[in-house]
Each structure stands twice: as structure tokens, then as C-alpha cells.
Amino acid sequence: MASRLASEVARQSLPGSSQIHLVPGADHTRLFVSNGSRYYKIADTTAAHLQQLIQQGDETAIHRELVAMGLHTPPAIDDTPLQDPPVHALSLAIAQKCNMGCTYCYADQGDFGGPAKNMQLDTAKKSIDLLLDNAEPGRKVQVTFLGGEPLINRPALREATIYAAEAGARKNIPVHFSITTNGTLLKPDDATFFETYGFAVTVSLDGIGAQHDRQRPFKSGAGTYQHIIEKIQPLLRTQQQMQVSARVTVTPGQNDLGETLLEFVNMGFHSVGFSPLLRAANGRDEMTKQDLKTMLEGMIACGLLFEQHVLQGKRFPFLNMINALKEIGKNTHRPYPCGAGAGYMGVSADGGLFACHRFVNEPAGSMGNIYDGVDSTLQNNWLASRHVHQQTPCSSCWAQYLCGGGCHHEVLEKGRHACDYIRGWLHYTLQAHERLSRLAPDWFM
Question: Which SUPFAM superfamilies match (predicted)?
Fold first, then answer.
């Protein structure tokens, strides 16, 4: 069923109009209006007429139809880029080193192309000061610890966490914490620490057993899967304030995402998410357009599992699906794909500020440093150049404001070969949103 549905979704989700998109449903076609990401039930005759206009490429006539239907509104997003947005989230490269030898690491085996190093505690504290100095009382901020492998520098990570929590409390600024870890260095008392400070813990697990071991071995070449599974058990048992998630990087040859999803859900993860490998530092294992077609089929199979569980009244923490349904439900429309270079920045071990954790030590994403602060010229030039209206072919795509233009780092390094996959996934989740809104409305409350 998933294979047949994926083929139909791929066909139906192709770009046609930048203003509208038609989404066939069980009873009526739904009209998705790009401006404001709005969603309407329409008559079959209206759908047929709009489909004809889409096929003709008549954007002027489509605009007239939206006016006649009372659906034309002023643009929710114009050409004006963000200007000097305050930073409310920082990721600290607390350890620019790693104990693993992952085949595709974006951070060049954890050292970001330079000498392996730890972030000094003073640098972490200065980063936190910058974050809190720009925050308003009562508004939450986010501190994320990344690497490399952040637990290599456990003492600084813990001290920085305590420092941020106490400084935030003094200023009436809630500080939320997260960490992405390979899981190999976890100790039992990490579970207690992460629970105390309410961490969101993301563990990188790229499949079950041998699949994971092929992609994420130790530098010696030895497998890591069973080692990690043993190490994460205290976290899975302890999580209450803490939430422990699994992140799966998908490469060619991973053909059964549903099996992986069920394994990790049954293991007790708070959520499980998949992300295609579009750019690797060494060029290995990157997904082609054909690989992404296969992945879309697997993702839809996972989505159908999610729908089945929801209809049975069961929680099913498939993160990609949950996030997509929430975005659709709140009519998300955005000029950027994420907060990179705006509300979110990455900090290198030496205190450099970068557009996000993936740009650490890359001049293209430089945003200043923690000592002098954000360089507003660099930041505003970045935000002007990365606005979705400045991206090609985004301006002709119906999904432009749901997508926001795609991951900046991947697009700048590899281009836009994932567009069909992104559109296909969004089309499927629009259909799923209609089905679940009708059959399981309580899920959205």
C-alpha cells in the first residue's frame, strides 16, 4: 500500500502553481493556498477548474479565482528580510573532537576541519552570558551541547549547565537544555543530571544492529550499536522531565524505516525521527534523487503506522509526522527554513559565532564572536540572501512557505535535489491531516 501511495503522492505533489496546490481527499479535494498556508475544502467542479488553470500555468487567472472565492489576502510574507533578530538559542560545540569514525560526519570526524579541542568553561559561560543578556525576563532561551561528541567534555558541560540555570533563575529567564550524543560515553549518573535539568537528549542511532554499525563505528572500526543500547538504558528508565529521542540519519540502502521506527518506539524513546543524508564532508553515502524516492516510500509507510496507532487511541512518537501535522494545523508560513543565523546560532570551541552548528568554522556562516557579539552586518546580509523569495526555484513552488527553502548548509553545499522528496512528504501529511482531523479529532486537542 505504501509503495502505491508513494507513487501517487509523487505524481500529485509536483510543482504547478506558486499560489495554490490541490490535495485529493477521501470525500472532497482540499485547496492549499500558499499565502498563509491555508487549507480549504472545495467542490469537485472548482477543483477541476483550478486543476485546468494549473496545467495551463495561468497564474493571473488563478489569482482572479482566489479573489472571486474570497480567499485572496494581503501577503503574509513579503520581500522584507529579518533585521537584527535577537538570539534566543545557542548550540555550543563543547567538544570539537569525537571517539567515533562515522562514515558521513558533517564535522570532519568531529573536529570541524581543525585541531581537536575542548571548549573551555570560560568560553561556555561567556556564550551563556551573551544569550541571557539579549533575553527578556520571562522568555525562555535554549542551550544545546553538540560536538563532535559533547560528553568528551563532560565537566565543562555540567558546569555550564549549572551556571546557565542559576544565572537564568536570577534574571527570571527559563533556560532549556538539550544535547545530541552518540551515546557511547554515557554514564549512569548522566541520567540523573539530565533529568534534574530537564534535558532533551537526542541519541544518534542509524538503524538496528549491523545497519547502524556500518555507518557509525568506533574509530577502530568496531561496531557501536550494542554498546549504545546498553548505555542508554538508565536514560530511558529515568526520563520524565528529560526526554530521550532517537535520530536516524538515512543513507542509501536503508530500506525498512518502519522496522527501525517500531524497534525504537518499543524501546521506549520519547520520539524517533528520520533525516536524509544530503551532504557529507567526504561525499560518502549521500542520497540521490532516486534514493529519496525510496525514502519517501519508507516515510509514508511510517506515516501510515502513525495513523493506525492514532485511530486506535495509542501514542506513537514518530517525530517527523507529529511536527508536520502541527505545522499544518497552525498554518505555518515562514520565509526561512529554521532559525539559523537569526534566533539560533552555533558557537565554536574558540567562541566564534556561526549561522548554526553545521557552519562552525566555515567562513560562509560566520556571524561574529561571543566577545564582540553578533556582527549585525554579517547577520543581516545572511538573512537578506537566504530569504525564501531570493531562492530559486522556491518562488515557483506551492510549498515555499511550509518548507522555507530547505537546510541552508545542505543547499549551499549540494543544491536542491531534495525538493521532490520534501514536496511529497508535505503532500502526504496534508492528506493525513485531513483524514485524522475527520476520524481522530481528539489528537489535535
Answer: Radical SAM enzymes
